[in-house]
Structures are given as structure tokens and as C-alpha cells.
Amino acid sequence: MRSLTVFLTLALFAVLAVAGPIPDDARDTVVHYAGYRVITFTPESDADIALIQKHLQSKDLTLQQWTRILQKGTPIDIQFSPSDLKKATPTLVDKVAHTIKIADLGPIVDADYEHAAEVDRMSLHKRQANIFTAYQPTATYLSYLQGKGGSLFTVGTSFQGTTIQGVKIGAGTKKIVIHGGIHAREWISPAVVTYIGDQLLSNTSFSDLTSAFTFYIIPVLNVDGYAYTRSNDRLWRKNRQTNSGSSCIGVDLNRNFGYQWGGASTSSNPCDNQIYRGKSAFEAVETKAIANFITSLGGVVSYIDFHSYSQLWMYPWGYSCSVAATPDEAAQRAGGAAAVAALRATNGVSFTNQRTCQLYAASGVSNDWAYGTAKVKFAYAVELRDTGSSGFMLPTSQIVPSGKETTAAVAALWRYVKNNS
Predict the structure, then answer these.
(1) What whole-number distance in Å separates Cα of residue 48 and Cα of residue 109?
(2) According to DSSP H, which parts of 307-397 are helical?
(3) Which pTM was predicted?
(4) How many C-beta neighbours within 10 Å does residue 420 have?
(5) Rounded to an integer, what distance in angstroms lies between the CA atom of residue 25 and that of residue 240?
(6) Within 10 Å of residue 245's Cβ, how many Cβ atoms?
(7) Could you give the dihedral angle defined by the CA atoms of residues 126, 409, 256 and 323, in that order, rounded to the nearest 10 degrees?
């Protein structure tokens, strides 16, 4: 491994210096998920769908959807607490075809907490040496890319006062923005975004891209939520803002963008841990910060919001499939096709290239806003590995292969963008 320089140490100090005080969250109760189970249902009839929907909407249960498509023949992953499992076994589990995906989340979650704690105890040198063999804190991703030659920039400030940062790479006139970690529990996305940045900085085969574009690489957008998943609640999704009139915390940042805000697949209930949209568009300071940042840049030709999981490459629209396709859909689809072909050629892993709404209609999402309001022609949301065997708990052994295939994908996409923007 490359030895660290004094510059890297100072770079990390600079990143940490703007990270803000340790939030009160750090003293919250740790959620261990002992006895929680994830079950994959495959509804075979309208009656099955209605039964699943009834249980998801029940106020007596706290079921959490890991995947959101509910239609005949399509698997849907649902998380049950021990008490929910006891209540729902005779009324749902025994009545709909299913398989047990994860019998007990507890040991897996606790292993991730220990993993994060072990990484946090490492020296800077060791964290850098293990950059893609461990899930790192935000500051490590940033300092690593800065140490490789990237230029640190600021996007804004989170609800808890943490500075949201990224690394600028390249010298082209056209601009590209990518980020991970909008949903806190999706740990693979910050790692893959950092891997892409590393390749842009160190792999000369991408010099045509760094000459044509300036890249703004943001490993973690939801910095408060991501930190919270490492110490307190591994499966937390939202940001960590307080909500007036409610004791429930957080807004789903990817339902809070100001394009078609408040429609399909959103909730007005702040206690919805999955898709609470906020009281108004851009209520969340993190969504407002990234929107302002993209708008202020001007000349952004491509935007990618990285998520997990499902292996999908998605272009607008997300809010509805009933409306006309975007005027640029042919180019967006072609760019996505180039990406998934290059991805498959790398490791043999297949992604589906489609409109976002073909996963499920969702309003107030990032790439709809980027295309519809910011006029970014090639605006995508990408769901990384896998298709559900590990879900949000993707092993660290998959960071490098996921990074390699996704880098190949974005390189193919951006070469298409270079000739079509």
C-alpha cells in the first residue's frame, strides 16, 4: 500500500475540523435488531397483494419494507420485529408464499456495529490502507480522495451542523455531480462513489474524461444519518432532523426534492421511517444544499444518485409512468444501456436499465429534480448490488467488485455523454 504523507494527516485534520460537535444521537440507545426477521413474499394473486398491503398499513404493526414493488409474481422483502412476527404469522406469513431471507438480523447488525467501531479505532494509516476492504467513516473517504489529488469543496451544512463535503476532480468545462449515502443505511454507495473518484484520480485510462469534465464527487450526502447507522441504528434511512409537533426524527431526503413533491410513494407522517416527505419541499437542509450547489455550478451535464439495492440503472421520470416520457428519454436510455453493458462485461453482473417509475412511482426524488428543474440531461438514480441475498448488509468483500463494475459503467456512460451533450 502507498505510504501516507504528512499532507494526508493534515488533510484528515482539515476534514475533521469542520465535522462539528459530536451529536446528541451518539448517546442514544443502540438498536440491536435481535430476533428481527426479513421475509421475502411472492404474491401470486390480487388477494395476496391485498393481504400484504393490509399488514403494511396496519397501525398495530411496525413492518418495514426493504423493497417497495408490490405486484403479482414480484418478490417483496419485508422486515418483522419479533412481536410483529408473532402477530402476523397466522394472518400473513402462513397465507402467502414466502422464503426467509434473514432469519435473525441481530447478529448481522451487531457485527456491522463492531466493524464500524473497529474501523474507527484504527489509525489514519490503517484506515487508508483498508479504504476498500472496510466501510469507512465519511471523513476517511474524503481525506483519501484529497490525498490522491482531489480538491476538497463544501456543499453545505447538515441539520446537526456537520459540513457536507466532496472532492473536485478534473479540468473540463462540462460538469458532473455524483453522490452516495442519501439513504443512511446503504453503506455500499459511499464506498463505490469513493472508488469511482479514486479511479478518476489514479487510472490514466480515464484521462479523456478528466480532460472533458470536472467531477464533483460527494461520498456521503446524508452525513448525520450515515454516522448514526454506524453507532446507533444500522438500518436508519432518513436524515436526523427534528420534526415540529412530533417526537419522531428525520425526513427521507429522496422524497424531499422540489419536483412533483408530495405525490406517489411518500408519506405525510413523520413517524414513517421510510418515506416521510417532510412538511414542504426542500425542508431538509441537505436536499436544499445539494440543489443549491448544483444550481450554482451551472453547466452540469450528468448527475447520479447512488443507492442500494436491486441492480438498476434508472432515468426520469420517477413520479409517474402515466405521463409522457422525457424529451430526452432516447438519449437517457442509450446512456444507461452503455452503462449496464459495460458493467455486465466487467463481472458478469446484470443491471436493468429503465425509467425510475418502473421500479415504483416515487415523487420528490433527486434525479427527477435534477432533470426537471436543474435541466441536467443525463440524470440517473442507480441501485447497486445486490438483488436481495444480502440487501443493505452487503459484505465488505463486495466493495471492490462493485466499485470496478460501476466505474466501468460510469466511464461508458460519460463517454456517451461527452458526445451527446
Answers:
(1) 30
(2) 329-347, 366-372
(3) 0.92
(4) 14
(5) 9
(6) 8
(7) -170
**CA 220 to chain CA mean position, Å:** 8
Point out the catalytic residue in the list 186, 286, 383, 405. Answer: 383
Burial group, residue 246, by CB count within 10 angstroms (0-12, 13-18, 19+):
exposed
186 is catalytic: no
What does the alpha-carbon distance between residue 218 and residue 179 come to, in Å, rounded to a whole number?
4
User: CA angle 412-417-419, nearest 5°?
Assistant: 105
For the segment 97-139, what is each residue's pLDDT rounded down to a tens digit? Answer: 999 999 999 999 999 999 999 999 999 889 999 999 999 999 9
Q: How far apart are CA 194 and CA 218, in angstroms?
A: 8
Instruction: Give dist(CA 57, CA 275) in Å, integer.
Output: 13
Q: How many C-beta atoms surround the C-beta of residue 62 within 10 A?
A: 13
Output phi, psi for 98, to 5 deg: -160, 165
pLDDT tens, position by position, 159-190: 999 999 999 999 999 999 999 999 999 999 99
CB 311 within 8 A of CB 340: no
DSSP-derived letter for residue 249 is: B
- Which residue type occupies 283? E
